[in-house]
Design brief:
It contains 15 helices and five strands. The protein is mainly α and 375 residues long. The strands form two sheets. It has a three-stranded antiparallel sheet with strand order 3-5-4. A two-stranded antiparallel ribbon has the order 1-2. Helix 2 packs antiparallel against helix 4 (84-100) and helix 4 runs antiparallel to helix 5. The relative contact order is 0.12.
């Protein structure tokens, strides 16, 4: 394999490197998929997904199970959500995304402005007291869990942060003469990893790093790939393990391959959902899209109880009957999914659990497009 050094250093005088040959076939598959996709290759698409589902996904990666309806409620300034921390982290991402949609240059000043938005009213008094003008001034642990080895769970030495961040900005703003959207996506994910590696702040590092990666994609009009947070939320444990491996060995190929594989799956899901929305007379709601996304993420036989288990694994828990009424019934009524057969289980005292499937007449299962999903 061809090893290419990336002009971003790690501690111990090492540099990140990449074996691009490792995912050349996947890169070609992604480029073929996106070729001619007018719907996804548009700023309207990026705004649609950013200001709803990507807010939810970005928070879910951090362990916050905010349903898309909660996100919508907070954005619309309804007052049914009384949890002030929950409201604040949703609003911060919403205003942060509005900020990056302005397509400002990514530099030290603008990144601090973005961080101030994302961290508003979420930082502890210690964090606020020990922040420098731009970055933290003390050590920080990255994760308090066994997901990373002990020698990998510290952020960069605070005395080194500015030097590394200056190098980071030079890398972001260098002209790479990329020819394909996927090349920009790869660079955005190198940025994503590197901000997690440096960990320039005490908190909100992950959300800031992922949002900065989206910012880079928007600045370069690479709109389809802004859904990459969706590609992490169902694979969070593997996400952290891959980060650990890159921190150990300096080979970012593991991380890039992971992010490319998973975003391809998400792009296929988006293609299917857009096809379904175009094939029915009624309009799909935000909750319908979320339901479809989870259905497309399920493997094997799909039942209402299995769907509820997946939902409750990702989001704050809700009762089975509530999930059935608000998420499954609307798609049955719109003829998007079909009842197949009852099972021996129960939803409640009156309703049997049942197997369902997507209405095949509503799906564009183009084999040139759908290669990862099993429908």
């Amino acid at each position: 394999m061809t090893r290419v050094n990336i002009p971003l250093k790690c501690e111990g005088k090492r540099k990140l490197y990449i074996n691009s040959d490792r995912f050349q076939i996947l890169k070609e598959e992604l480029e073929q998929f996106l070729d001619g996709e007018k719907y996804m290759n548009s700023s309207e698409f990026s705004k649609k997904v950013l200001l709803s589902h990507e807010i939810q996904s970005n928070n879910i990666v951090e362990g916050y199970g905010d349903d898309v309806e909660i996100v919508k409620d907070v954005i619309n300034n309804n007052q049914s959500i009384k949890d002030t921390k929950k409201r604040q982290r949703i609003l911060n991402l919403y205003y942060g995304y509005k900020y990056i949609l302005e397509k400002k240059e990514i530099n030290q000043e603008h990144l601090k402005e973005l961080y101030n938005i994302l961290s508003t009213d979420l930082l502890s008094s210690y964090d606020l007291d020990h922040m420098g003008k731009y970055y933290r001034q003390d050590d920080v642990y990255i994760y308090f869990s066994n997901r990373l080895d002990s020698k990998c769970d510290m952020g960069l030495n605070p005395n080194e942060i500015k030097k590394y961040m200056d190098e980071f900005f030079n890398y972001i703003n260098s002209n790479n003469n990329f020819k394909t959207p996927t090349d920009y996506y790869i660079k955005s994910q190198i940025m994503h990893y590197y901000m997690v590696y440096i960990h320039p702040y005490y908190d909100i590092n992950g959300r800031t790093g992922r949002t900065t990666s989206m910012w880079y994609l928007l600045n370069n009009e690479v709109y389809p790939y802004v859904i990459f947070n969706r590609a992490i939320q169902l694979e969070k444990n593997k996400y952290y393990l891959v980060i650990r491996d890159v921190k150990k060995y300096g080979n970012i190929s593991y991380f890039i391959n992971f992010m490319m594989e998973n975003v391809k799956v998400e792009l296929e899901k988006e293609y299917i959902m857009h096809g379904i929305a175009s094939s029915i007379s009624s309009k799909l709601t935000s909750l319908d899209y979320q339901t479809l996304h989870y259905i497309l993420s399920m493997k094997g036989i799909k039942t209402v109880n299995d769907f509820a288990s997946l939902y409750n694994r990702i989001n704050d828990k809700r009762k089975l009957l509530d999930i059935y009424k608000s998420m499954i019934i609307p798609l049955l009524e719109k003829d998007v999914i079909k009842h197949v057969r009852n099972t021996n289980g129960k939803i409640d005292g009156q309703n049997s659990n049942f197997v369902f499937e997507l209405n095949k007449n509503k799906i564009d299962n183009n084999p040139n497009k759908i290669k990862k999903l099993k429908l």
